[in-house]
Structures are given as structure tokens and as C-alpha cells.
């Protein structure tokens, strides 16, 4: 899997947020949500079938996290650190290129 | 020169808001506080107050809009009562946790069921643990003054907590009294401009407010609210002093009335304090050693002041218009808690009185006094006394 494009932000936010409690727990940096890895909440995991994908971006558009980004060829890449397994991408995909599978068998 | 006007408590609250010059007011009409936003919207429409007045579809939205505005960094105000305040409940915690110094006027009213629009304190008492500072006004002048003081305290950098000022439904909200409206210039000096360093909107420097607090952070964030509430004790006293210097009216965390040689001190809040002082005068003429104390600031609870008061008397009798079902009165619990580790403490009596707008009469106060006198000689008979209860219809 390709590396998250937010890696640098995550590290910076992680540092600032753990060092000092601010009034109102405000994070004086943008993008603090990237350190809250929502992937651990997941029960179902989207599985991607590249052969069926028509690169319509619908999954990318609808993902609420957003845990999908696009690779150089504009295929979706799923970031399992943040994918909470809601299944919206699978539901929106017109070609059924995404299927939700139970994480633990 | 300050101007004197005869006005209802609700108008006094609206005037306080006008003088404080909030930039955003969001409110939903609810009895008995409807006139507060009505009057403010008039001020805004007439160009007397330069502010954004947001009409919303519920109190939940009103306070949510206030949280948004305050998080953007401007002075913010709203008003409500009873079920409206209850509907805000969820967001009240958020406002305090995000340390947003929103100020709210409350026409203290009973909660349903049965539906009752009249006065008691169940609404604000039920919100005592949300992290909001709480003031209780005895009359319309206090309603105005304590709202100004609420802004001053809430916005202090040592505090940064929201604050509510309660004034009794109908007894104050709809009753006209002469009220002195302070000079705008002096109010401007007293309050200064609100320029938050912690919460503001600046597209050039984006920040994240209302973040997720994992177990590793949540407890520290809550402790900061606790610490801010503790800091508020000093800040409130300073604000009271400065207010007295500027406007000549004196406020105290706990106001004592004829307590010096009192054997029995009756403690209450809000407009009932006025009735109680009259009652004390009457009993003093009859030679009864009785005094009164009014709690002006209920959160933070004036623990030290109550301890000092407890040293003076044999009985502290709490008269309160609220119930914590299955326990007793909320103010009683706070008073008792303040004294629990004192070596010597007076008898503390818990009187529930005047719920849902029932008039508190001298006969009822006599009844409470009788119980207090008997308690000195024969001890306490009941954990909680319901005064003025119509036992015949139970
Ligand atoms: S399952 Fe939900 S969170 Fe995960 S990638 Fe799909 S839309 Fe995004
Ligand atoms: S919605 Fe389906 S077809 Fe469209 S880009 Fe995503 S995976 Fe491919």
C-alpha cells in the first residue's frame, strides 16, 4: 500500500497535541483529526477489485473520513488507518468493485 | 449620568446585553424569558445594538449557534428558561469544555411534568454540573448587574467559562421595578473589548476546536475546567470590587443579613432572599435571634463563605426551590458538603419550598423557623422538610 500523504502532518500534530493541554483542548494546528486513527473502530473492511473499477471517483467522493485517496493512475487506495468500515464506498460503487468483508473470521 | 427606568426583569436583562455589546445573539422564545430576545431584537432592528441576531428553531440550535459564534471569537449572549434550558443541556457541557465565555440570562422556571411556567430553580440547578458559572439575582437591578459581571468573569483569561444569571420567573421577569442603567462608557471600561487568545476564527491561522479527546487527554481537559472554576472564585471577587468602585453597588458571594448574633441563619437564593430579609426584620422586632444569608454565586460554590457563616450560628436552615429526587435539596447538599470535615458544625436543615410558583408566605417561614428552634432543643426529625405542602390532597 502507498504511504499516507498525511504522514508529516500526523507526526507534527501528534507532537503538539501530546505536549501541553490547551484551554478548551484546542489544537493550534490544522488537521489534528489525522492523529485520531478511526480504523480501529472497523468491523467490516472494504476489499477492492481493480479489474472492475472504472475510476469514477464516487467512492473517493463519498468516503466520510476521508480514507480513500487516488494513486498515480487514479485508482482508489484505501487507508486502513482511517477507514471506519461504514461501507458507503461499497454502496456507492456502480460496478461493485468494492465489497465489505468481515475483518475477523 | 446613569439613567433610572422602571422596567421588568426581562427588560433589565436585555439592557444588560445591550450594554455589553455582544456581536452575536441567538435565542428562541420561551416563557417567561421571551421578552429578553424580543427586546434585544428591537435594539438590533433600531440600530441601537450592532449585532447579529440569529433566529433559530429551538434552544438546542440557539446555544449551538452561540457556541459557533463564540468559537469564532466574539462576545455572545442568549436567554432561556426551564424546558428550553433542558433542551440546551447537551451543548452546555460543550460550551464549558471548549472554554467559550457565552453569557446566558435565565428566567428561573419549574420543569414539567406537570407543565408549569412559574418560578422555582429546578432548571438552573439541574445544570449545576455542566461547568457554567451560576449567579442568582434577588431583584431586577441585580439581574442587570449580574449579567454584566457574568461577562467580566467569563471572559477573564484565568476563567474562560460560560456563565448564566438566573432571575425568578414572573416574580422578577414580569414585575416592574426601578432599575438604574449604568453609563455605556463606564460599562465599556468595565468590560473592555473581548479579544480571545484561545478561541477565534482566522483563516490565515487555522486551528481545531472541539476535538476528539482520547482517554489519554480527556481527564486533563476536564481538570482544566475544574481549575478554571476554582480560579473563578478570586476573579468573581475582583469583579465585584471593581463593579462597586465603578457603579456603587456591592455584591458578595454570600450576602449576610443580621447574622452577627444570630442563632438561626436561613440561607436562600434569588428573590426569596428579599422576602426572607423582611421576615428577619419582623422576627428581630419580636426578639428572635435570626439572620439571613443569600447565595449570589452558586457555581463555583462559596465553600469558604459558608464555613465562615457556619461558625456564627447553631442552625443553618436552607430554603430552596428545587429537589434532587431521592436525596434532598441541591443547595443543602452543597452546604453540608462544605462543612463535612469541620470539627464543629451547626445543625443543617433542608427545606423544600415554593416549587412551581407557590407563594412563599411568612406563615411558611414561621413553620420553618419553628422546626429550626425545635431542632436546637430536640434534634432533627426529618432529613428533608417540605414546607407549604398541601398534605390534605396527597
Ligand atoms: S468503508 Fe467507509 S470509511 Fe472505509 S473507505 Fe469506505 S467509505 Fe471510507
Ligand atoms: S466507485 Fe467503484 S468504480 Fe468508482 S472509482 Fe471507486 S471503486 Fe472504482
From TrEMBL, chain A:
Known partners and oligomeric status: Heterotetramer of one alpha, one beta, one delta and one gamma chain.
Name its co-factor(s): [4Fe-4S] cluster
The species this protein belongs to is: Thermococcus paralvinellae
GO terms assigned for molecular function: 4 iron, 4 sulfur cluster binding; metal ion binding; oxidoreductase activity, acting on the aldehyde or oxo group of donors, iron-sulfur protein as acceptor
* Entry keyword set: 4Fe-4S, Electron transport, Iron, Iron-sulfur, Metal-binding, Pyruvate, Repeat, Transport
Q: What is this protein called?
A: Pyruvate synthase subunit PorD
Keyword Repeat in annotation: yes
Record-linked NCBIfam families:
PorD_Arch, PorD_KorD, PRK09624.1
Domain 4Fe-4S ferredoxin-type stretches: 44-73, 74-103
InterPro entries assigned to the protein according to its UniProt record, in alphabetical order: 4Fe4S_Fe-S-bd, 4Fe4S_Fe_S_CS, PorD_KorD, Pyruvate_synthase_PorD
Automatic annotation (TrEMBL), chain B:
Q: Which reaction does it catalyse?
A: 2 oxidized [2Fe-2S]-[ferredoxin] + pyruvate + CoA = 2 reduced [2Fe-2S]-[ferredoxin] + acetyl-CoA + CO2 + H(+)
Mind telling me which InterPro entries this protein's record contains? PFOR_II, Pyruvate:ferred/Flavod_OxRd, Pyruvate_synthase_PorA, Pyrv_Fd/Flavodoxin_OxRdtase_N, THDP-binding, Transketo_C/PFOR_II
SUPFAM superfamilies, per database record: Thiamin diphosphate-binding fold (THDP-binding), TK C-terminal domain-like
Q: Which residues form the Pyruvate:ferredoxin oxidoreductase core domain?
A: 262-364
Q: Which GO terms describe its molecular function?
A: pyruvate synthase activity
- Please list the GO biological process terms of this entry: response to oxidative stress
Q: Which EC number(s) does UniProt give?
A: 1.2.7.1
| Sequence ranges assigned to domain Pyruvate flavodoxin/ferredoxin oxidoreductase pyrimidine binding in this UniProt record | 16-240
Subunit and partners: Heterotetramer of one alpha, one beta, one delta and one gamma chain.
Tell whether Oxidoreductase is among the UniProt keywords: yes
Keywords carried by this UniProt record: Oxidoreductase, Pyruvate
Protein name from the UniProt record? Pyruvate synthase subunit PorA
Keyword presence, Membrane: no
Q: Which PANTHER family match?
A: PYRUVATE-FLAVODOXIN OXIDOREDUCTASE-RELATED
Amino acid at each position: 500500500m502507498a504511504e499516507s500523504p498525511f504522514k508529516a502532518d500526523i507526526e507534527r500534530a501528534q507532537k503538539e497535541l501530546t505536549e501541553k493541554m490547551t484551554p478548551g483542548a484546542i489544537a493550534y494546528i490544522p488537521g489534528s483529526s489525522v492523529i485520531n486513527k478511526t480504523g480501529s473502530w472497523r468491523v467490516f473492511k472494504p476489499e477492492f477489485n481493480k479489474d472492475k473499477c472504472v475510476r469514477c471517483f464516487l467512492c473517493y467522493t463519498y468516503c466520510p473520513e476521508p480514507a480513500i485517496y487516488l494513486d498515480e493512475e487514479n485508482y482508489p487506495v484505501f487507508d486502513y488507518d482511517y477507514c471506519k468500515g461504514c461501507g458507503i464506498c461499497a454502496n456507492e460503487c456502480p460496478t461493485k468493485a468494492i465489497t465489505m468483508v468481515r475483518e475477523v473470521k | 449620568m446613569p439613567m433610572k427606568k422602571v422596567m421588568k426583569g426581562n427588560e433589565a436583562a436585555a439592557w444588560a446585553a445591550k450594554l455589553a455589546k455582544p456581536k452575536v445573539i441567538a435565542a428562541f422564545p420561551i416563557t417567561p424569558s421571551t421578552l429578553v430576545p424580543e427586546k434585544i431584537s428591537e435594539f438590533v432592528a433600531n440600530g441601537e445594538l450592532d449585532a447579529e441576531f440569529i433566529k433559530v428553531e429551538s434552544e438546542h440550535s440557539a446555544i449551538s449557534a452561540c457556541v459557533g459564534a463564540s468559537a469564532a471569537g466574539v462576545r455572545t449572549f442568549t436567554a432561556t428558561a426551564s424546558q428550553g434550558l433542558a433542551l440546551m443541556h447537551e451543548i452546555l457541557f460543550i460550551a464549558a469544555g471548549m472554554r467559550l465565555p457565552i453569557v446566558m440570562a435565565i428566567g428561573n422556571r419549574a420543569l414539567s411534568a406537570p407543565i408549569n411556567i412559574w418560578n422555582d430553580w429546578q432548571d438552573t440547578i439541574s445544570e449545576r454540573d455542566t461547568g457554567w458559572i451560576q449567579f442568582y439575582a434577588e431583584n431586577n437591578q441585580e439581574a442587570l448587574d449580574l449579567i454584566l459581571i457574568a461577562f467580566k468573569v467569563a471572559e477573564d483569561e484565568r476563567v474562560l467559562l460560560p456563565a448564566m444569571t438566573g432571575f425568578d420567573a414572573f416574580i422578577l421577569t414580569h414585575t416592574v421595578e426601578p432599575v438604574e442603567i449604568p453609563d455605556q462608557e463606564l460599562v465599556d471600561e468595565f468590560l473592555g473589548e473581548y479579544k480571545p487568545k484561545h478561541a477565534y476564527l482566522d483563516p490565515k491561522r487555522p486551528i481545531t476546536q472541539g476535538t476528539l479527546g482520547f482517554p489519554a487527554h480527556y481527564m486533563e481537559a476536564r481538570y482544566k475546567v475544574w481549575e478554571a472554576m476554582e480560579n473563578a472564585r478570586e476573579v468573581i471577587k475582583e469583579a465585584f470590587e471593581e463593579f462597586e468602585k465603578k457603579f456603587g453597588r456591592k455584591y458578595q458571594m454570600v450576602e449576610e443579613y443580621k447574622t452577627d448574633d444570630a442563632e438561626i441563619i436561613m440561607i436562600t437564593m434569588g428573590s426569596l432572599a428579599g422576602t426572607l430579609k423582611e421576615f428577619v426584620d419582623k422576627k428581630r422586632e419580636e426578639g428572635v435571634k435570626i439572620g439571613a444569608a443569600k447565595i449570589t454565586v452558586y457555581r463555583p460554590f462559596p465553600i469558604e463563605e459558608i464555613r465562615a457563616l457556619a461558625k456564627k450560628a447553631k442552625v443553618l436552615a436552607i430554603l430552596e426551590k428545587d429537589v434532587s429526587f431521592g436525596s434532598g435539596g441541591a443547595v443543602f447538599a452543597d452546604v453540608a458538603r462544605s462543612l463535612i470535615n469541620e470539627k464543629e458544625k451547626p445543625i443543617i436543615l433542608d427545606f423544600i419550598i415554593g416549587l412551581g410558583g407557590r407563594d412563599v408566605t411568612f406563615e411558611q417561614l414561621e413553620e420553618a423557623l419553628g422546626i429550626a428552634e425545635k431542632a436546637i432543643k430536640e434534634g432533627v426529625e426529618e432529613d428533608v422538610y417540605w414546607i407549604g405542602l398541601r398534605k390534605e390532597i396527597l
